[in-house]
Amino acid sequence: MRFSSITLGALLLATTAPALAQETAPAPAITLNGTATVISDYKFRGISQTDGNFAVQGGLTISHASGFYVSAWGSSIDDYVTTHGTAHQELDLIAGFKHSFKNGVTLDVGALYYVYPGTRPGFTTPSVDKSSSDFIEPYASVSYAIGPVTAKATVNYAPKQKALSLDQGQSGSLKNEDNVYLAGDVSAAIPKTPFSLTGHLGHSFGPSWLVPAQRKEYTDWAVGGAVTWKNLTLGVSYVGTDVKFITPTGKDAAKGSVLGSIGVSF
């Protein structure tokens, strides 16, 4: 996922509100936004987290007028996502600060904590399972908007921690690893239409649990489009990578594929 943002549908609703209402009703200091989505395959940095199957996702974000925000986002996943082998959900807890400048530049910094319920120490006998799945990843992004087009550059850095070791600490002997993810994104809303287009290019530097085995780094990319009607959004995208990741069922989770989604914002 993994970044909290107002959906295109919510933005369109905000920009089409009557001018009189905007003048008479000052913006609230605290706002709450939520999303619920069904997607044909949950891919994280180009790699399927659901073995090519559907995922149900949802999130809530509380934002303050100062720019600070907190968010929680969750998705169903397959059990191979962690070495523990019992995870079926991913929960992302996010806290950050976002500020937009008058020249169209927006700065967003924060930290994201990935939690996989049921895999934390204490759920199994420590002498049998020494793995750790939860980890933290600070991030920073800079975006620039020109009319309906926005370009964004992002860096995520997950410092050395047990969950990023190649076996997530199961053997108790491998050193902890860190991970850097660099990404560039472009999005454009087609004027006077409910359609939007997106493009993405990312590169992950390892080796770590976030990079497929036997690789030190890999690249992922995506192109897509969406149509919004009121608070409903339909999306389609193509996601690909330059790496292979074979799941326990024999599927290549990193193979390029077309994804479809339907989501609602509130």
Structure in words:
There is one protein chain. A hairpin with a 3-residue loop joins strand 4 and strand 5 (68-76). This protein has helices at residues 8-15, 19-24, and strands spanning 30-39, 43-44, 47-48, 55-64, 68-76, 89-100, 105-115, 135-146, 149-161, 177-189, 195-205, 217-229, 232-241, 257-265. 5% of the residues lie in helices and 52% in strands. The strands form 2 sheets. The protein has a 12-stranded antiparallel β-barrel. With 266 residues, it is mainly beta. Residues 1-22 have low confidence and may be disordered. The protein is globular, with a radius of gyration of 19 Å. The protein contains 2 helices and 14 strands.
Descriptive labels:
266 residues; 12-stranded antiparallel beta barrel
Span of the ends, CA to CA: 18 Å
What order do the SSEs take from the amino end to the carboxyl end, as H and E?
Answer: HHEEEEEEEEEEEEEE
Number of E-state strands: 14
Sheet having the most strands: 12 strands, antiparallel, barrel
Helix content: under 10%
Shape: globular
User: What low-confidence regions span 5 or more consecutive residues with pLDDT below 50?
Assistant: 1-22
Which structural class do the helices and strands define?
mainly beta
Q: Rg from C-alpha positions?
A: 19 Å
Proportion in β-strands = over 45%
Strand order of the largest sheet: 1-4-5-6-7-8-9-10-11-12-13-14
**Arithmetic mean pLDDT:** 88
Number of helices: 2
